[in-house]
Backbone:
């Protein structure tokens, strides 16, 4: 059955240009082209069709003025998907429209979903507001909010201060926790568990090292187990994550807690595709995947994503940085809209907020102050001012002075530099590994394993290794090239000083890095580190240069990469950095 909706030209152009190629809508919406009016044919139950019609009417009422003004300025015809510069909301609107339409069409014939698995322990219920506030303050100053509108906000669950408070009803989870010997939940776990077990969507602003993986995995196990379906016909939980290394690490964590014998697997590009296909076909419960390869298997109808009811978008900011947004959108179209969704991100830039708006439903947010390096005040941070051509002698000097138990992760900007530096080291008889996205997957895994196991104590890597990698005994970070933005600096430095150990970070800064100086100073200050005089002078010189540039170029403050001055503005300079 189908119904036909009339579209005016402007909306038609918009739909054809942006929605169709992006989302391959042909199965559900057929758009017929006309000159001034176009038609959209919507398939599905009559209730679904009615709902879609209402939504499109709403959208046209909301959006058409924006499109018309766009057309007047002559923007419309040049604005495809990449035209979102002229219409900041366009991408958002398109994904929302698409998401809503699919929500209605797809939810009509799906089995019911169970999300509530939480019974608040007495000791948790008894906490007073003051006690809760005090606890949050003492635990990394953790901040929790309901993202619903003012006036509609729900009460936020009290934290579970012990494992038992969260999982008393789930003895198998408790057994596993006892087996690994953890003593208490990390702050994000304490706050995320009651929210997730209550069935709410959650955004966790936290970086690796905070215990975020278990924060979403354990409620996920309970959720998958709690569904009342005879045969799921595919995996129940999906974790999307930016890099293969992170996927493997999450999978290791997943297997460690092997709940009810659930089978988990990793799907990532570069790995043995046929092997992955065979595992999928043999049936899995939990999939941890990078978006590219998963989308490939989805397109080829090898994996069924419709059975997924618990979805995690891990390190969403990183996935966007790596350009995975189109694949993520396509993957999510196949996943039922009434699922439970968790998103983690180390930062909260506009792109991540947009993802959250489009794909999470009334989420709560838990924020563990990650970008505040005070949280990593166990790392001593040193900055050295050098010329580009002196860098090699600095790094070799550093290596000569290493103690036998030291382990250093050296960060460089480009793949070729990682190869160049590591082969120089090899030639000098040093035992070294290198890690970057240009290597075969098996080599990447071996490099990391050698470094983790201590067979190799020097790893030269691109920012592929700046996040997520959990090697607990790295003693030194050596920033051979300054990272592309200050967030990445924080992530790199956070690779050491883990689990209460102390660490040292050495950063080489050249004249070319001057735009980072104003952003580095507050990071050092907050972590109680010494701020070198030269860095202050460099920052002043840069600020002066920026002011002068703005004075001479009236548009200087606009989209030219100046603006907020944030590192992410440096995307166009991305040629200097690779993963
Ligand atoms: P993540 O932030 O998820 O990458 O976790 C970082 C490390 O902390 C992993 O090695 C975890 O196994 C470990 N971890 C997770 N939860 C806890 C906990 N409650 N207590 C101690 N360590 C933990």
Residues:
């Amino acid at each position: 059955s189908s119904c036909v909706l009339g579209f005016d030209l402007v909306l038609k152009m918009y739909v054809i240009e942006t929605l169709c190629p992006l989302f391959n809508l042909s199965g559900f919406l057929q758009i017929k082209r006309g000159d001034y009016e176009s038609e959209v044919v919507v398939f599905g139950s009559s209730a679904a069709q009615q709902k879609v019609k209402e939504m499109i009417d709403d959208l046209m009422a909301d959006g058409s003025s924006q499109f018309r003004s766009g057309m007047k300025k002559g923007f419309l015809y040049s604005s495809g998907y990449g035209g979102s510069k002229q219409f900041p909301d366009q991408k958002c609107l398109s994904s929302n429209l698409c998401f809503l339409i699919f929500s209605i069409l797809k939810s009509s014939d799906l089995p019911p979903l169970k999300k509530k698995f939480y019974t608040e322990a007495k000791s948790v219920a008894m906490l007073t507001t003051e006690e809760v506030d005090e606890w949050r303050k003492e635990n990394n100053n953790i901040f929790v909010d309901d993202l619903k509108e003012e006036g509609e906000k729900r009460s936020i669950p009290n934290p579970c201060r012990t494992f038992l408070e969260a999982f008393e009803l789930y003895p198998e989870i408790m057994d596993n926790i006892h087996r690994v010997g953890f003593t208490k939940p990390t702050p994000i776990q304490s706050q995320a568990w009651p929210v997730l077990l209550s069935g709410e969507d959650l955004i966790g602003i936290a970086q690796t090292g905070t215990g975020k993986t278990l924060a979403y995995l354990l409620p996920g196990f309970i959720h998958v187990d709690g569904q009342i379906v005879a045969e799921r016909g595919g995996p129940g939980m999906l974790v999307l994550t930016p890099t293969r290394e992170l996927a493997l690490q999450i999978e290791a964590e997943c297997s460690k807690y092997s709940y009810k014998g659930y089978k988990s697997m990793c799907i990532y590009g570069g790995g043995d595709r046929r092997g992955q296909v065979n595992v999928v076909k043999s049936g899995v419960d939990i999939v941890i995947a990078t978006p590219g390869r998963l989308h490939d298997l989805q397109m080829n109808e090898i994996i069924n994503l419709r059975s997924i009811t618990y979805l995690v978008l891990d390190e969403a900011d990183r996935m966007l940085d790596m350009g995975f947004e189109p694949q993520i959108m396509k993957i999510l179209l196949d996943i039922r809209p009434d699922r439970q969704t968790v998103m983690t991100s180390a930062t909260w830039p506009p792109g991540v907020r947009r993802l959250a708006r489009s794909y999470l439903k009334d989420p709560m947010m838990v924020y563990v102050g990650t970008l505040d390096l005070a949280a990593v005040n166990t790392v001593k941070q040193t900055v050295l001012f050098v010329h580009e051509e002196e860098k090699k002698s600095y790094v070799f000097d550093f290596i000569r002075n290493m103690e036998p138990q030291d382990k250093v992760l050296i960060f460089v900007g480009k793949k070729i530099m990682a190869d160049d530096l590591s082969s120089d080291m090899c030639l000098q008889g040093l035992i070294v590994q290198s890690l970057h996205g240009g290597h075969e997957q098996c080599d990447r895994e071996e490099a990391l394993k050698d470094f983790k196991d201590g067979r190799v104590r020097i790893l030269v890597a691109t920012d592929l290794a700046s996040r997520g990698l959990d090697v607990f005994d790295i003693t030194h970070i050596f920033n051979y090239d300054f990272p592309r933005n200050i967030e990445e600096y924080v992530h790199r430095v956070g690779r050491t000083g883990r689990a209460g150990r102390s660490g040292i970070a050495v950063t080489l800064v050249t004249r070319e890095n001057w735009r980072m100086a104003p952003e580095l100073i507050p990071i050092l200050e907050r972590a109680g580190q010494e701020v070198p005089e030269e860095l202050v002078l460099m920052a002043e010189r840069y600020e002066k240069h920026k002011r002068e540039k703005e004075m001479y170029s009236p548009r200087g403050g606009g989209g030219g990469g100046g603006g907020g001055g944030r590192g992410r503005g440096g995307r166009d300079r991305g040629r200097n950095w690779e993963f």
Observations:
- Residues 182, 185-186, 189, 208-214, 470 surround adenosine monophosphate (CB under 6 Å).
- The domain at 379-540 is CATH 3.40.50.300 (Rossmann fold).
